């Protein structure tokens, strides 16, 4: 029983070695580590260049819409991604998020997000890489931009949007990922129920906060991908061994991760 965590932010873990050790002990073989800015992208590349451990780290390089500062910083981040593209399994975490209070009524900041996202879509199209999309509240626009850019593989990360957009995401040949939010979010459950198994990925979004049985909130680690998996099997009433085989195959195909 082994599993792949398709969405982590390892740069943000206070005890990286301990988290990866716990993940390996739990049967996690691979994690996709997504960058959100220049510094996090650099850290993930450095992690992959260090001595290999029992969990393989696969970097995705990106600029998160919540981490956009100046156009100069965006250009520097995109340049770093281009220079290190051979080490990336995907572009991301990229996308649009107009729900941030400092963006909601600021058309200039919205346009900066669009420009940064388009720059990443262009890189993905040029180098034939998949894109991991953050689309909170902007699902339709992100979908249309991805399609217009000729993106063949896109993952709408932690999808919790409307079913009509989800239907169009699936019609475009794209996938969605589900997170520990399956344990409590009606929107996430609805998306998981609607999407077929062959269009799903499981993730933790480490170190997002999760609840323990006693109600305590703690930061998640890649080992918690099993929580997402079991919640998904419960929501969709899936046979666990069959579902696990399918989900691992989905992850390998999407990110081009070789079998151990």
Question: Could you explain how this protein is built, in words?
Answer:
The chain has helices at 16-26, 38-49, 71-83, 107-127, 139-148, 163-171, 186-194, 225-236, 240-255, and strands at residues 3-8, 28-34, 56-61, 90-95, 131-134, 154-156, 175-178, 200-202, 209-211, 217-219. The chain contains nine helices and ten strands. α3 links the parallel β3 and β4. By secondary structure, it is an alpha/beta fold. The radius of gyration is 17 Å and the shape is globular. The chain has a single domain (3-255), classed as Metal-dependent hydrolases (TIM Barrel). Helix content is 43%, strand content 17%. The model has no long low-confidence stretch (mean pLDDT 96).
List keywords for this structure.
8-stranded parallel beta sheet, TIM Barrel, alpha/beta, 260 residues
Task: Write a compact overview of the structure shown.
The chain is of the alpha/beta class and 260 residues long. It is 43% helix and 17% strand.
- Structure summary, number of beta strands: 10
Average pLDDT figure: 96
CATH fold field value? TIM Barrel
Helix content: 40-55%
Shape by Cα distribution? globular
Determine Rg (CA atoms, Å): 17 Å
Overall domain count: 1
Topology of this structure?
Elements: E1 3-8, H1 16-26, E2 28-34, H2 38-49, E3 56-61, H3 71-83, E4 90-95, H4 107-127, E5 131-134, H5 139-148, E6 154-156, H6 163-171, E7 175-178, H7 186-194, E8 200-202, E9 209-211, E10 217-219, H8 225-236, H9 240-255
Parallel strand pairs: 1-2, 2-3, 3-4, 4-5, 5-6, 6-7, 7-8
Antiparallel strand pairs: 9-10
Helix pairs in contact: 3-4
């Amino acid at each position: 029983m082994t599993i792949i965590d398709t969405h982590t932010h390892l740069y943000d873990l206070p005890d990286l070695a301990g988290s990866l050790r716990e993940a390996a002990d739990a049967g996690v073989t691979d994690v996709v580590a997504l960058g959100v800015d220049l510094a996090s992208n650099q850290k993930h590349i450095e992690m992959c260049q260090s001595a290999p451990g029992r969990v393989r780290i696969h970097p995705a390089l990106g600029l998160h819409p919540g981490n956009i500062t100046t156009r100069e910083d965006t250009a520097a981040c995109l340049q770093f991604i281009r220079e290190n593209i051979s080490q990336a399994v995907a572009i991301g975490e990229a996308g649009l998020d107009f729900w941030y209070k400092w963006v909601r009524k600021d058309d200039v900041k919205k346009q900066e997000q669009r420009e940064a996202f388009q720059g990443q879509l262009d890189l993905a199209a040029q180098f034939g890489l998949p894109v991991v999309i953050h689309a909170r509240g902007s699902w339709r626009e992100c979908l249309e931009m991805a399609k217009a850019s000729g993106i063949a593989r896109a993952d709408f990360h932690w999808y919790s949007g409307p079913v009509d957009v989800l239907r169009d995401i699936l019609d475009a040949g794209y996938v969605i990922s589900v997170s520990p939010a399956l344990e409590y979010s009606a929107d996430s459950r609805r998306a998981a129920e609607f999407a077929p198994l062959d269009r799903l990925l499981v993730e933790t979004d480490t170190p997002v906060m999760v609840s323990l049985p006693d109600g305590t909130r703690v930061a998640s680690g890649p080992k918690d991908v099993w929580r997402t998996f079991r919640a998904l099997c419960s929501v969709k009433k899936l046979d666990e061994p069959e579902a696990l085989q399918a989900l691992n195959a989905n992850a390998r195909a999407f990110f081009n991760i070789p079998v151990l």
